[in-house]
Amino acid sequence: MIIIKKKFLEKTIIKLVKLLDKMEKLQNITLSEEYIDEEKNWITPNYTPIPAVLSKGEGVWVWDVDGKKYLDCLSAYSAVNQGHRHPKIIQAAKTQMDRITLTSRAFFNDQLGSFMKKLCQYSGMEMACPMNTGAEAVETALKIARRWGYWKKGVTENKAEIIVVNENFHGRTITIVGFSDDPDTYGGFGPATPGFKIIPYQDINALKKAINKNTVGFMIEPIQGEAGVIVPYNGYLKEVRKVCDDNNVLMILDEIQTGFARTGKRFAFEHEGIKPDILIVGKALGGGLFPVSAALGKKEILSVLTSGSHGSTFGGNPFACAVGSAAIDVLIEENLAENADNLGAYFKNRLMELPKDIIKEVRGKGLLLAIQFNEKGGKAKKYVLEMKKRGLLAKQTHVHTIRFAPPLIISKEEIDFACDIIRDSINYVKSKLI
To answer: Among 176, 263, 305, 349, which residue's CB has the most CB atoms within a 10 Å radius?
Structure first.
């Protein structure tokens, strides 16, 4: 009788352990759903995130609330070039937090001057205007270009024109969306701010025709990230530089996504050996910790911003300066531009091995890459969701394209891990399409 009870007890314990295990798993699933539901209930629906509730990050890896580990192949749109929670950047932030975090520009602080000097020397520019978010840096560049046009070029007041290109993405302020050609971006937010012309990307003749006596600037991304990593033909930026020089027009480059070693150079414009009149930077300048941005250029151009004409309470705050300075140090000390160049070529070659019957194109520079599916391959999101299941996070853009932009500290072995998941996910989804 005692033996029977013992066996019964053992079976009961096993059942209880299995039940507890199931309950724990259910609890984790519920936890994810709770976070997602909370966001949906309290936050405007202006994003459609991939359903991974992230709670931890380190290096190239992130973890969700269920404990699942993923390789991050988005890097917060290049804001995490140095990797998640880089120890040097974290330490710089902690040290500064123990001193002072905010002064406003009503006073000087002991971090701003040295940080701006480092940023200018890193980029090869002469002067900078510190801001916070990328969109603010873009708006700063636009204001500089207009005032330069009136004060230096002699354009009639309120007549200045700035040329942009189709499929541009420069942010989401009311002015910026006014010169977007994406209905999801500008729809319902009109009227558009006047003074902007849209021409085709990579069309140098269209640029020449669009310029007139009121043109003060031409603003482009050297590689269009949000449009699907569109890389212009070799020599395009050099041709743009010449046209701008010939017509006394400012060449304005938005390197918010392409800057700080992402494409295998410090900045994408270096691939063609030219230099813009105004350079817009952000994202990775904050080291993945804090929004830090700036508009940079020649002193004779940026000095049109006089006292009271532009500013930001948080722009140039000492905490941001300490973080940004450490972020630049990491890029230099760890040779991240060289790493992006070498491993970007390796990553791209691995992507070229993917099934050609459903992939239209593989493109990119450095560690800013993309694959575009053809009609047979269909929409990209189903592949993204399958990659997520297998432990890789990426994001689709423009329906048929997936962008890959891992932290620049990534290793060859981690790229192999990513490429194996990409290949297996695509092959799995492809098998379901047949």
So the answer is: 263
Which pair of tokens denotes residue 297? 């250029």
- Which one from 64, 196, 218, 254 is the annotated catalytic residue? 254
Please pick, among 218, 269, 283, 290, the residue that the annotation labels catalytic.
Answer: 283
Measured CA to CA in angstroms, residue 376 lies from 184, 211, 302, 380, 432 at distances of 25, 41, 50, 11, 12
Alpha-helical (H) ranges within 277-361 are 299-302, 318-333, 336-351
Least confident of 21-30, 92-101, 139-148, 235-244: 21-30
What's the token pair of residue 423? 């290949």
Give the Cα separation of 118 and 325 in Å (integer).
7
Residue with tokens 């300490």: 322
Contact 131, 312 (CB under 8 A): yes
Does the pLDDT at position 1 exceed 50?
no
For residue 420, indicate whether it is catalytic: no
Is 254 annotated as catalytic? yes
**Residue of 64, 72, 115, 169 with catalytic role:** 169
Is 21 assigned a catalytic role?
no
Task: Compute how many other C-beta atoms are within 10 angstroms of the C-beta atom of residue 237.
Answer: 22
Residues whose CB is less than 8 angstroms from the CB of residue 249 and which lie 6 or more positions away in sequence, other chains included:
163, 211, 215, 216, 217, 218, 243
pTM attached to this predicted model: 0.92
Instruction: Tell me the two tokens of residue 92.
Output: 């710089």
Helical segments of 273-335, H only: 299-302, 318-333
Cα gap 145→308, rounded to integer Å: 17
Alpha carbon separation from 145 to 28, 60, 142, 150, 383 (Å, rounded): 52, 38, 5, 9, 42
- Residue position matching structure tokens 């980029």: 123
